[in-house]
Please model this.
Amino acid sequence: MVSAKELAINELFVFTLSYAIYAQSELDALCIRGRHLILSPGVWADSVLNPLGLHQTRDWKIWQMNYAYWPVKSHDVKIPIWFEFGNLDANDHGTFYGFPPLNFDPSMANRVKMSADYTYDVFDHPAQIHHKVSQRLMKELSGHLSSLLNPQAIHLEQMEDAGTCLYSMSPDGKLVIGRIPTQPCSETFYHGASMCIMESGRAFKYAPLFGRVLVELAIDGKSPYQSDLDIFSPLREGLFN
Model:
C-alpha cells in the first residue's frame, strides 16, 4: 500500500456530476472517484488547479520557513505558547513565535520549539525549493531566544533538529477559501467542489473550522460563515488567470 505522501497527482478529471483523481508513485497507482471535490493543495495549487482552468498569477510566492528545538534544563520550567511582532523593525522581520514542551510525543518532550514568521528564501515555483535551513535565520532565532528566556531555563547552545516547512503566499497575503470558480472571477462554480489555499501557518489552529466550511461549501454550496468568508473569496482579482 502506498501512502499519500508517496503519491503524486498526475491528472484530475471533471465529469458532469463527479470527479476523478489519478495519482501514482514509482511503486503503485491510485484512482479516486467521488461526487464532491475538496482541494487543499498548498504550494502545489497551480498544478492541481490547472485541470480546472485556473492558473495562479505570478504574484503568488512560496515562503520556505525555518524552525528548531532547544532542550529545557528542568521539567518544571513553565513556558507558554507565545507570539511576538515587530521586535526588530517595523516590517515582518521581527515576528517570532514558539511552543512549550509537548510531552504527548516523545520526540517533542522537554524541548521548546521556536520559529520566525519571516524568511529569506522566497520561491516562484515548487521546483525551486531546496529545503536548506537558513543559517542566517537560525542565528537570529538563537539570538532572540537568548534575550527572551531565562538562560537557566533552556540550553541555548544546543539547538536541535532544525528544519524547514513551506507557506503558500497569495498576492494580497490573505487566505483563499471558497467554492471553485469555473474561471477567474467568475460567479459560476464547479458543482460540489471547494478549496482552501494558503492555509500554511493557519491550518493547525483552524483545521476543524476549515474542514467544516469546506464540506458545507462542497455539499450545500453555502456556509453559515459566508459573511466571514467574503474577504477570502477565490473570486477576488489578482489570484488566477
User: Anything to note?
Assistant: Residues 189 and 233 are 12 Å apart (CA to CA).
